[in-house]
Amino acid sequence: MIEAQGLTMIYGNGHKATDGISFNIHKGEIVGFAGPNGAGKTTVIKMLTGILRPTEGTAVINGFDINKDPLNAKRSFAYIADNPDILIQLTGLEYINFIADMYDIPTEDRAPKIDELAERFDMKDALNTQMRDYSHGMRQKLMVIAALVHNPPAWILDEPMTGLDPTAAFELKKMMREHAKVGNSVLFSTHVLEVAEQLCDRIIIINKGRIIEQGTLDYLRLEYPDRTLEEIFVELTGKSE
Ligand SMILES: Nc1ncnc2c1ncn2[C@@H]1O[C@H](COP(=O)(O)OP(=O)(O)O)[C@@H](O)[C@H]1O
Ligand SMILES: [Mg+2]
What we know:
- With 241 residues, the chain is α/β, with parallel strands linked by helices.
- The protein folds into 2 domains: 162 residues, Rossmann fold, CATH 3.40.50.300; 68 residues, no CATH class.
- The protein contains 9 helices and 10 strands.
- The strands form 2 sheets. Strands 6-7-8-3-9-10 form a 6-stranded mixed beta sheet, sandwiched between helices. Strands 2-1-4-5 form a 4-stranded antiparallel beta sheet.
- A hairpin with a 2-residue loop joins β4 and β5.
- α3 runs parallel beside α5.
- The longest helix is centred in the C-terminal third of the chain and has 16 residues.
- The protein is globular, with a radius of gyration of 18 Å.
- The relative contact order is 0.18.
- The model has no long low-confidence stretch (mean pLDDT 91).
- The structure holds adenosine-5'-diphosphate and magnesium ion (MG).
- Magnesium ion binds next to α1.
């Protein structure tokens, strides 16, 4: 369960990037957070995950307020950032172990999990190489593996498909579906509508820092008949471009 309540972010330069964003992602749901570049998706995700403190509003993950009870909140979700270029002097395996240490995952539990994930993402041979020598897609896959080693009940993914090759994107989408199916919550941002259309139970569309529409794909098709999701999206967000 992911709960955003009135999340507003005014950056230091006075720019109001988001304005009163509220939504709930229930257990068993995959929700796509769609919007054009600069809409405020990353800002909302950073407030949900405790990287940014909201100017106003609250974020509660699995019952834990991210700012009042950050340790418990952070243990209960996996987060994939939009930029995989961190700590690249570490090898892939060192980075995974660094994350697994933070989550107190016992060594005997993590080895089989790392093995399984590395196999799925075709990263076994790369684990002992420094991440500085990885391609963007490999870094992204490594971030996915590290985030999923502790397999918590909520996943919060910022543009997770960007830079992944088709096989890795396919695997990740499959895993997102599997994860939601067994009763977990998955929220991912995307500026690519096809990805949202393939995966989501529900879509939240954000533009200029505000939610302008949300609902199931069926609802959107009923509400905006005879249009593809992409056409609906352009119609809703394009006016301001
Ligand atoms: N650190 C920052 N300081 C000032 N403005 C920012 C900062 N980060 C993002 N913004 C602005 O906030 C808006 C939303 O950005 P962002 O959340 O990254 O959008 P998205 O992820 O949807 O592309 C944009 O106008 C962006 O330029
Ligand atoms: Mg972004």
